[in-house]
Amino acid sequence: MLVVNLATFIFITDICLNLPPLSLYIHIPWCIKKCPYCDFNSHAVKDDVPESQYILALLQDLAQDVALYGITRPISNIFIGGGTPSLFSPEAINRLLEGVGHQLAFADDLELTLEANPGTFESHKFAEFRAIGINRLSIGIQSFNDVLLTKLGRVHTAKEAVRAIEIAHQAGFDNLNLDLMFGLPEATASCSQKDLQAAVALAPTHISFYQLTLEPNTYFHRVPPSLPDDDAIFIVQKAGQALLADKGYQQYEISAYSQTGRQCKHNLNYWQFGDYLGIGAGAHGKITRKVPGHIFRTHKPKSPGQYLPGKHKNNDAAGSIAVADLPLEFVMNHLRLREGFSLAHYHSATGLDPCTLEPALSDCRAQGLIDYQHGHYRCSPKGWDFLDSVLQKFLPN
Description:
The chain has 16 helices and 15 strands. By secondary structure, the protein is an alpha/beta fold. The chain has two domains: 6-269, Aldolase class I (TIM Barrel), CATH 3.20.20; 326-397, Orthogonal Bundle (Arc Repressor Mutant, subunit A). A nine-stranded mixed beta sheet has the order 9-10-8-7-6-5-4-1-11, sandwiched between helices. A two-stranded parallel sheet has the order 2-3. A hairpin with a 2-residue loop joins β14 and β15. The radius of gyration is 21 Å and the shape is globular. The protein starts with 5 loop residues before the first helix and ends in a 5-residue tail after the last helix. The relative contact order is 0.12.
């Protein structure tokens, strides 16, 4: 008599359903200071950060999601974001990762990213982060110009940013992302070029290069700074793209550039409409149980106080993505990627017939906004520059 335990049965079922890869996003909401442009769920540290309580809450949160969605797929990558996760001690992060490992299997080639602020770098601390398995750092530089850093409300200087990257290399990190922004208050056209040149000289494997936007519920939205005009920003963006391409950084997503084979696995999974568990205060996730009618968006309480142990219970009742919204949900992600998407992947990820992308797909091709090459639909250069206009065509009637 053949005996199959429940976990094995669910795993086999997952394969049969052709479920997408699964990532884990962990949100740690505290930072040293709230930046005036930041619309993430982050809170300036007032007292000691409640590490132990929060780690317990994260693991309870994960356990609820694993049970609720019957998760048995291995985790392909983990991204610990914030806030400033590097405020937590290596000991706390280690307890967290061990706890996650007791609940879920890790892929053999797991990419494990930790976001860090240059103002929190200490040599021994980052050597310990590397020793516990963190193999990728994402460092929020924003600029190497002290005047611009002050205008952005950052707590570090250009010198501290350079030193942080040196510490990361010395600690054994050979996979580094640097965040840089353009279109900053009162910045000249040469500022971004100098920032990119300084970044490239420090040999990161990945650079995120994106425009400062004035998001609602931020200080900059309430009290707008003086920013360059749209034409000047467009020129800066194109010049930055050209410089990065010349230095061997391939643009694989609208704001992401990497050396060959060093794309961020977590970002790729996100933009390819993969699944990701989101745990932590304010964290979002996406989980597929069955296509097309059982794809869920999840979100957790934003307040750290409401999130701590025993304060909430995970529930998927209101989170199912409407079938009519799936075409937009899919292309909104995939068209940010240079490689675009195939109709076969659209069908497997959504369960929908490719005809559900019409007439928007044909209209975009006729207008030169989307190209078709080698079995993939992708934004043309014109389409990438006017992506919002492209996406409007896929809105449900």
